[in-house]
Specification:
There is one protein chain. The chain has 15 helices and 25 strands. The protein is an alpha+beta fold. The strands form 4 sheets. Strands 3, 17, 18, 19, 20, 21, 22, 23, 24 and 25 form a 10-stranded mixed β-sheet that branches. Strands 2-6-7-8-16-11-12 form a 7-stranded antiparallel β-sheet, with no helix packed on it. A 6-stranded mixed β-sheet has the order 1-4-5-10-14-13, with no helix packed on it. Helix 9 runs parallel beside helix 11. About 50% of the residues are buried.
Length: about 625
């Protein structure tokens, strides 16, 4: 027991030191780390198996054999040879390694761990004597480093830091963490108060520095993250034709009122601001993020949770500009929505943020990878003429490597804890260690139905007096709760059903949510969707695909007489619920949007013409 207590105290020291730099903590809820969550779920477990057995090998093969990404590190270590690919390709290798590290947490694999160590040796060998590491500039001329703010030097460094922290947490090995520390310390000799100004063109370093602060207990990394955030909008950026708006550099971050520019960059910026606000006790940042959230969610977000409608800037245009066929909706941006909304929920305890997280997770992000786990979408339109397909890789491969690191960490988003409550945010079959005295086990077939059973495992004769807060999804119209077989009427606070109970070993909560088919009308200001309707059920957006509607695809429409039915089809892409809409003239067969383009090529639509007469 004494050893366990000592470890717990030591692991908390970095938190105390980083909090000490800011004087407090505005976060109400702390997440339960996915390392304490073991997923056994009919929906997610097959996807995690595919990630381990298919997606990781695909990414490793692309990085080692099909592209020059790993050779760039080998050449940089030798100090000679060409750089192949794009100047930010290092980041794909780091993100893939982060995904490998996350997989090791719940799936120990000595072969995979040896591959990680092999890559890390190459990273370390490529690092310069002063701590700088970036294969593009090492191979094209170190004299040109830090001359172009949009060459992604800090972006690549940020992804290396995230990978280093992930691998250190997964294995306890420090080699890559030491490389990351040296790079961060080097950057701080060049940039900072009284030194050079710098505005990273692509945000990422800011949130990564916060992770480094928490991993090392060194508050200087948090301070550097804050300094970088405060560099924006003060005339220090140099963008040329790219434009300051593209890089969120028009006004200081505390004056931001609307989302703009590149969608992924904006998401990483907001995550960095949220992380700094947490440790710096900065309520001003939180107020800014709240108004930005309202702008994007109510004016610039697709029904799928996708953001960034324009291919021209991989980002935003004007309010309510949400085309379907030309929708960009980068997979990375949907993952960014998950990461940002997760943080926003921790400040507020408001379920609306998890509603958006869930929408982006099950639709915008999950669509980015095939059911087999071997092909990827970069762009996620809401309509296709039959010529848009997932690819095995991309020249700019940020999305495959993003999905690679995102999927194995899905357990992060299920639970939270606070002084008085356990927060159940997502409904995924799992067993989770909430504390030394409490373990929760979820059983559910979500998202195919809305029944969830939660079992409490505790220690004999110990009563745990914590509220259990169950998120009532925004899509849910009717729900009910039973505690130990008896109907329970909870209070509701910010979208959570608050179950107050002295929890004992063996207690059980059953949460039932009606999961009806919904016919959705877009905001009238979205011109593209006038006279159309979309179909949803639970957290899932549905679409019609030509594979299920081979006759008269272009003339199919919904009407006010359309009657909906649904059923689970075990033969459909591994098993899923399909929806049928019928009236006197039309029969429309719907499948979940995330599953489209997994069969023969054909057209697809989310928004379908509606006959209101």
């Amino acid at each position: 027991m004494k050893k366990t207590i000592t470890i717990a105290i030591l692991s908390f020291v970095p938190w105390l030191m980083c909090f000490g730099a800011g004087g407090g903590n505005v976060r109400k809820i702390s997440p339960v780390d996915f390392s304490d969550v073991k997923i056994h779920d009919q929906f997610w477990s097959p996807r995690l198996e595919s990630h381990k057995n298919v997606t990781l090998p695909v990414c490793i093969d692309q990085i080692e054999n099909q592209t020059g990404r790993i050779r760039n590190f080998e050449n940089a270590a030798k100090g000679r040879g060409e750089h192949s690919g794009i100047f930010f390709d290092d980041s794909d290798v780091y993100k893939a390694l982060e995904g490998m590290a996350y997989s090791l947490v719940n799936n120990p694999d000595p072969v995979l761990e040896a591959k990680c160590d092999e890559w890390i040796d190459k990273f370390a060998a490529a690092q310069q004597d002063d701590g700088y590491i970036n294969t593009y500039y090492t191979l094209t001329g170190l004299e040109n480093r830090w001359t172009d703010m949009d060459k992604h030097e800090m972006y690549c460094a940020g992804h290396m830091i995230e990978a280093a922290v992930a691998y250190y947490k997964a294995t306890g090995k420090r080699k890559l963490l030491d490389v990351a520390v040296r790079m961060a310390d080097y950057m701080m000799t060049v940039f900072g108060e009284g030194k050079r100004h710098w505005v990273p063109g692509h945000e990422e370093i800011e949130l990564a520095l916060v992770k480094l602060c928490l991993a090392t207990g060194e508050a200087k990394y948090l301070d550097f993250a804050k300094w970088l955030l405060e560099q924006r909008g003060r005339g220090f950026g140099q963008w040329g034709a790219l434009g300051a708006d593209h890089c969120q550099d028009v006004v200081p971050v505390t004056e931001l009122t609307s989302i703009g520019g590149h969608a992924v960059r904006a998401m990483y910026l907001y995550c960095g601001m949220a992380d700094v606000a947490t440790l710096k006790n900065d309520k001003t940042y939180i107020e800014v993020l709240e108004r930005l959230w309202e702008d994007v969610v109510y004016k610039k977000m697709y029904i799928t949770g996708g953001i960034g409608s324009s291919a021209k800037n991989e980002g935003f245009t004007v309010e309510y500009d949400l085309p379907n066929l030309e929708a960009y909706c980068e997979t990375c941006a949907s993952v960014g929505m998950v990461l940002w909304n997760w943080r926003m929920n921790q400040f507020s305890g408001d379920s609306k943020y998890i509603d958006v997280l869930e929408k982006a997770l099950y639709n915008g992000a999950l669509a980015g990878i095939s059911m087999k786990g071997d092909r990827f979408f970069y762009v996620n339109p809401l309509e296709s003429l039959g010529n848009h397909h997932r690819q095995p890789w991309f020249g700019c491969a940020c999305c495959p490597s993003q999905i690679c690191r995102f999927l194995p960490s899905i357990g992060n988003y299920i639970y939270g804890v606070s002084d008085k409550a356990v927060w159940v945010n997502l409904y995924i079959g799992n067993t989770a260690r909430i504390s030394d005295f409490m373990t929760l086990t979820q059983e559910t077939e979500y998202p195919w139905n809305g029944d969830v059973k939660i079992k409490v495992t505790g220690k004999d004769k110990i009563i745990i007096n914590k509220e259990m807060r169950l998120r009532i999804p925004g899509w849910c119209r009717n729900w009910s709760i039973k505690v130990n077989g008896k109907a329970y009427t909870p209070s509701v606070d910010k979208g959570y059903a608050v179950v107050k109970h002295g929890w004992r070993n063996g207690d059980e909560v059953v949460f039932h949510m009606d999961m009806d088919v919904e016919k959705v009308t877009a905001d009238y200001r979205v011109k593209e969707d006038l006279g159309k309707r979309a179909v949803t059920r639970g957290p899932l957006v549905y679409c019609i695909e030509e594979a299920d509607n081979p006759e008269g695809f272009d003339t199919l429409n919904l009407s006010r007489f359309s009657a909906f039915s649904y059923s689970y089809d075990p033969s459909l892409l591994g098993g899923m619920v399909r929806i049928t809409a019928k009236d006197n003239q039309n029969v429309l067969n719907y499948i979940p949007y995330f599953a489209w383009d997994n069969r023969e090529a054909g057209r697809m639509k989310v928004w379908v013409k509606y006959n209101g007469n």
